[in-house]
Amino acid sequence: MSISVKLEAFEGPLDLLLHLIDKNKVNIYDIPIVEIADQYMEYINNMEDKDLDIMSEFLVMAATLLNIKSKMLLPKDETKEEEEDPRQELVERLLEYKMFKYISEELKDKELDAARVFFKEPTIPEEIEGFKEEIDTESLLADLTLAKLHKIFESVVKKQTDKIDPIRSKFGKIEREEINLTAKLLSIQAYGLKHRKFSFRKLLEAQPTKMEIIVTFLGVLELMKIGQVIIQQDNLFDDITVTFTGDTIAEFDDRVVLE
Which residues form a coiled coil (predicted)? Predict the structure, then answer.
């Protein structure tokens, strides 16, 4: 089957392929490669411009189409469950090119719309441009007294006082608490050497702050990881029993700090 193609200028081989796909009204995901390749070669043979720089791009695509065409004509290997479609790479290139072509057309429309917009430059009449309002400082300061100045000062101070939150201002300074995880690990090990078996809940309840509780919990997990302690819970929701199995206190890197 042949198709009459108007010999118009295309931006490249992908542009020509999209034109042929649209002309034949075929699905881009299921390109009839034999038919499209024949029409593509017909266009190449009828090209008026034989410039090698331009023709080289079209010839490379022609070789690609012929390669795909030959693969499509080969009998399928029944031993393979699923063979890769030889058209897949070409379809992906066409879709990418089509997307960028659409974007370029959208940008071109915006450029045309912007060319129709005119902005008026700011202009000020000469009579107004040089106008400056004169302020009579003598009349303003004529009736100014010490009592009025004091009243103005009090109003300014009151505005500053009103900005202060009466509750939050009494909180004091909030500082970030820094806990040394290495020191906590050594402390837990010393506690374990002394008691050997102890309650996990009581160990946490003995910590003075929430951050100390968190770091103690992390410390027990770390000691479990290196095999220094074993935890046990007989029944659901029962207290967890911690058994210290080490004979000595293990050393850790002093740079381990949890903030």
Answer: none
Residues constituting the chain: 259
Domains in the chain: ranges and CATH: 13-74+85-113 (no CATH), 181-244 (1.10.10.580)
Q: Which residues of 123-146 are buried (b: 16+ CB within 10 A; e: fewer)?
A: eeeeeeeeeeeeeeeeeeeeeeee
Do 28 and 94 touch, CB atoms closer than 8 A? yes
35 pLDDT exceeds 80? yes
- Amino acid present at 26: V
**Mean local confidence (pLDDT), 169-193:** 74
Closest by alpha carbon to 16, among 50, 61, 48? 61
Is residue 43 within 8 Å of 23, Cβ to Cβ?
Answer: no
**What whole-number distance in Å separates Cα of residue 33 and Cα of residue 40?**
10
Percent of the chain surpassing pLDDT 90: 0
For CA atoms 167, 169, 170, 171, the dihedral sign is positive
**Averaged pLDDT score across all residues of the chain:** 76
pLDDT tops 50 at residue 135: yes
